[in-house]
Amino acid sequence: MVRTVIRGVGGYVPERVVTNKDLEKLMDTSDEWIRERTGIQERRWVTTQQNHELGLEASRVALSRAGIGPQDVDLILYATLSMEYTFPGSGVLLQDKLGCRTIGALDIRNQCSGFLYGLAVADGMIRSGLYRNVLLVGSEVHSTRIDLSTLGRDVAVLFGDGAGAVVLGPGEDDSKGLLSVHLHCEGKHHDLLWIEGHGSLFPHAEQVRVIQERRHLPQMDGRQVFVHAVRRMPEVLQEALQANGLSIQDIDLLLPHQANLRINQKVAATLGIPESKVVNNIQKYGNTTAATIPLCLWNALDEGRVHDGSLLAMVAFGSGFTWASALYRW
Ligand code: ACO
User: Fold this and answer.
1) Which segments of 157-304 does DSSP mark as H helices, in order?
2) What is the per-residue pLDDT across 185-211, written as a single tens digit (0 to 9) for each?
3) DSSP code of 120?
4) CATH class of 177-329
5) Atom of ligand 1 lying closest to residue 318 CA
6) Pocket of ligand 1 (CB under 6 A)
7) Confidence (pLDDT) at 198
């Protein structure tokens, strides 16, 4: 059986570091509150870069590590919730800047689960033989769309900008590669974490009112998100393990979405996974949404934490609600 394998991984974060102390100057918050509730110490924000330009940097690294060039890419999958325009999506902008052929570019809109949803799409296309080199990108520019006044502080302190990318293709044998991806959603909770005011429900003539009512900004019921995340993430990871005849003890590295360090600690404790096996980068990057998991993988590889034969468990939960898991044998 052909399995999808990761041929190269790349990551990129903007140079501008924004500490919690920097945020104290903009809104009524404190370094202590942010660290204690979320684990975040600092995040990166763009100065002028656009979403696809972060994706471009991450993609260049991933392609170079895969030993292929832009002309070899057969398909772009681009996961983001912070695309430059309502349409077209960021994928076509990346195709142009990266210098790919006029291949397809598909944008994935599944927020924090976007990278894993993209992985599932890539896996189907690669295993069916449709494409050989698929570039999957998770990239976000949150900083331009958050309210930096005290009114927006519950959301503003959480998010950072960044991008991760992987080059995927068919493997040589079935001993290594992607074992499975499990996807879920529960749309009845769509309004617990969303930006309401940019869609077709709001006609042109109502846009001024939408902005006055602050409905163009991200809104979140943080407690509900927390409660659902700590339930769904262990659940979907167990589902993946069961489907593959594996157990918690088989996991070498857990790469969870980075919404809140406390969420990840609770998930690891629920499953009985020691913290030494968990990759977290929220402390330095904040929540980079679709970019969190590829950035974690990029960090883990650079830190020498991934070895031949390592079993990687990836798990995400976010807006939708959507959640997902993937198991990968390195
Ligand atoms: N600084 C200081 N005080 C704050 C801040 C802040 N940045 N934000 C909120 N507060 C205040 C609140 O106003 C509240 O004050 P009050 O008690 O006087 O009313 C108090 O702090 C407690 O607020 P809570 O919201 O109850 O705090 P909680 O302990 O729930 O933590 C948090 C909030 C960190 C947001 C938490 O709920 C969380 O992490 N939830 C999950 C978030 C998440 O996963 N988001 C995913 C987004 S990713 C995606 O899919 C797009």
Assistant:
1) 207-212, 222-243, 261-271, 282-285, 292-302
2) 999 999 999 999 988 898 888 889 999
3) H
4) alpha beta
5) 50
6) 29, 33, 37-38, 111-112, 153-154, 157, 193, 220, 222-223, 225-226, 229, 259-260, 287, 289, 318-319
7) 83
Q: pLDDT value at position 69?
A: 98
Angle in degrees, 0-180, between the axes of helices 51-66 and 90-98, rounded to the nearest 10: 50
Contact 40, 261 (CB under 8 A): yes
What is the bridge-based pairing of β-strands 253-256 and 311-318? parallel
Q: Which residues pair with residue 56 across a beta bridge?
A: none
Q: What is the pLDDT of residues 64-86, one digit of tens each?
A: 999 999 999 999 999 999 999 99
152 close to 178: Cβ distance less than 8 angstroms: no
Count of beta carbons in the 10 Å neighbourhood of residue 213: 12
Architecture of domain 4-170: 3-Layer(aba) Sandwich (3.40)
Question: For residue 293, what are its two tokens?
Answer: 């998991």
Question: CA 121 from chain center: how many Å?
Answer: 15
Say if 4-170 and 177-329 have the same CATH topology.
yes
Domain ranges of the chain: 4-170, 177-329
Q: How far is CA 328 from the centre of its chain?
A: 17
Tokens for 320, please give them.
């939708």
